[in-house]
């Protein structure tokens, strides 16, 4: 596909190129651990502590994320974007639901019991290097994308989710 800019023909950008490069660069556990340490101010040195659990589109058809892994009780999801997308929290929710489903099945966790089950804490980073002028760091919240009825606004929300337990 050809696009035109300033009366010049240019090939259309291959949007999956940078995305694939990000996955390629961080496919080695040592490099991924280094990135994790840089983002979290931690000092892990054993790459074998890291368990990669990236979603593959072969298993989940249309669900494919860049890099996902478990370390020290934290489920990490790293996405690379060359186009700014304010809806990444929604995509993160969808990715995390599949990652948790995979985690629960893999670890034989029965979520239909009367005892609470502990799951790894989610941590989500999106790396943007597109052409739009964006701040070096910003926080996008799932709750900002929810059309919340005013009756719920005063409730206590945790990470944009609320569960009201009613006894009957």
Q: Let me know the average pLDDT.
A: 78
Element-by-element helix/strand order: EEHHEHEEHEH
Tell me the number of strands.
Answer: 6
Q: Specify Rg, calculated over alpha carbons.
A: 19 Å
User: In terms of structural class, how would the helical and strand content be classed?
Assistant: alpha+beta
Which regions are unreliable across 5 or more consecutive residues at pLDDT < 50? Answer: 1-5, 13-17
The percent range for strand residues is 15-25%
> Based on CA inertia axes, which overall geometry fits?
globular
Largest sheet: 4 strands, mixed
Percent range of helical residues: 25-40%
Give the distance, in angstroms, between the N- and C-terminal Cα atoms. 60 Å
Question: What do these coordinates show?
Answer:
By secondary structure, the protein is an alpha+beta fold. Helices cover 30% and strands 18% of the residues. It is built from five helices and six strands, in the order E-E-H-H-E-H-E-E-H-E-H. The protein has helices at 15-25, 29-40, 57-60, 88-106, 150-153, and strands at 2-5, 8-11, 51-52, 67-71, 74-81, 121-128. The strands form two sheets. Strands 3-4-5-6 form a four-stranded mixed beta sheet. The protein has a two-stranded antiparallel ribbon with strand order 1-2. Strand 1 and strand 2 (8-11) form a beta hairpin.
